[in-house]
Amino acid sequence: xxxxxxxxNVAIIGSGxxxxxxxxxxxKSEHLTAAAFVGRNKSSKGIYIARxxxxxASDEGVFFLRSHAxxxxxxxxxxSASSHxxxxxxxKSLGKKTVDLTPARLGEIxxxxxxxxxxxxxxxxxxxxxxxxxSIPIIxxxxxxxxxxxxxxxxxxxxxxxxGMATRDNIDEYIKTTEFAILxxxxxxxxxxxxxxxxxxxxxxxxxxxxxxxxxxxxELTVQMIDERVEEVRNYVPGYKIAIEPTFKSDHMVVGISVxxxxxxxxxxxxNLDIINCAAxxxxxxxxxxxxxxxxxxx
Length: 299
Fold this sequence. Notes:
Number of strands: 12
Largest sheet: 7 strands, parallel
Helix content: 40-55%
Strand order of the largest sheet: 3-2-1-4-5-7-6
CATH superfamily of the largest domain: NAD(P)-binding Rossmann-like Domain
Distance between the termini: 17 Å
Number of helices: 10
Radius of gyration: 19 Å
Shape: globular
CATH class of the largest domain: Alpha Beta
């Protein structure tokens, strides 16, 4: 537990690529401490790496976290949508805050540049998807400058090498959760999300192209809002940038975003994993600041 410390003790469940990269980001954080790293595969590379880094690691999965609840205040769930359905009721019964990196959408959806202030009070925060984290900041910014958006379509391309089994197994959940979140964070009437897993060599970096059909009364203001939002996202995702400048034609516009990873554990081309992990870290750090502030108030 935190017990007056300046850092939030966190556990990570899911010892694959996302969880292992997340572990490296937690270690770098000034506000978080890695209390435990767990999975279900004894031969997991992630568990081996965690132990080499001196982090308490287990292959007993959620059962370990249930029996060692005194170690952590918050848990990152980097498993799968179906596993989170099982895991979250356990975390809830233990009174632990949960940051969900799967597209299960059991908790409140969050895009840090849009609604992180609201998320500080939630017990289960859902990070949507990589495509959602890349596109929604821009779509939300656009929606603030127009009277109507009829349709939004996003197309995210990622390297096949950065798409693990959980990503591939959760394609349906990915699409549904991304489309739901687009509608929640914009004035769009309809939304469509497409994910392309590209096997090209050398690997491609993540790029998300956003197509918007609506009424653009002030394109200059729309571009200004997009630029401002990009800078806000770069505060927690340094590799986030515009790849295709906003282009308007009648009642259509297109803008493209690319994401280059920080290379903490995964290659830089794996921006799809980097952006959702960076967003998750931002939420947990906000949890930490809220807890520290509460302790100072009631000390």
